[in-house]
Amino acid sequence: MAVSVAQRLSAAGTANALELRGVTRMFGALAALTDVSLTVRPGERRAVLGSNGAGKTTLFNCITGDFLPTLGTIRLFGEDVTEFPAYERIRRGLRRTYQISLLFTGLSVLDNIYLACRGVSRGRFSLIRPRRNEALMHSAEQLATAVHLIDVRDTKVAELSYGQQRQLEIALALAGAPRFILFDEPAAGLSPTERRELIEILTNLPAHIGYIIIEHDMDVALRVSESVTMMHNGRIFKEGRPSEIESDPEVQELYLGGGHG
User: How many domains does the chain have?
Assistant: First the structure.
C-alpha cells in the first residue's frame, strides 16, 4: 500500500533522522562496508572519522542511493529507503556535498543558488523566464547570506576563491528546506581563516537540520559535531562524544598516530 505524504510526515515527527541496520556493501569479493549499524536523531550533528579506506565515502554513497547496499536496511525519518533511487531520497529532504566542487563556474553565485532552489521546487519544469523579485530569488539571497556570500552574489563562480566555492556548495545543499545533509570533507584544501568561517557557517545552521560530516581535519570535525563515529576497515570502531573520542588512546594510536597536536 502506498504511503501518503501526510503519513510520512506524521511518522517523521517521532522517528530518527537516519537509521542504518546491518549495512554491508560488497565490490566483488571486497567488503567496503561490513555490518554497519548507525542511528542519528533529528537535528543531531555527527562526525564520521577514519583513515583513507575506512569506508566513509562508501557509507555516504549508500545513504544517498548512489550505491545500494548488498545487505542491510536504511531508513530516513522512519521510512525504509533502502531500494530508493537518489532523487527519491532528495525529495524526502536528504542533501549531500561532494569532495570535488560541482558548480556552474560561468554563472554568478546567486544564479547557482537560484538554480538549486528551482531544481527542488514544483515549478522547476516551467519555461517562463524567472523574475529576480520572485520567491525563489529571495530564497537564494537568504542562502547567500547564510553562507557569507551575499557580498559576492553577482560574481562569477570561476572568480571565487576555493574556500568561497566550498561555501557555495553548502548553500546549494541548503536549497529546498532539507532535513538532513551529508557533508563530504568540506574543509579539504581550506586555509585556517576559511576553516574558521566554515565552522561558523555549520554551527549556525538551523537547529532542525541534522547532518553527518566526513572530515580529515579533526579540529573542524570535533568543533561542529556533538557525536562522533570512528570507522576502520569498513566497520564502526568507536562511538562517543567529541571529548571522549579525542582522548581515547586507541583512537589516538589508530587515527592520530599516537597523539593529537
Answer: 1
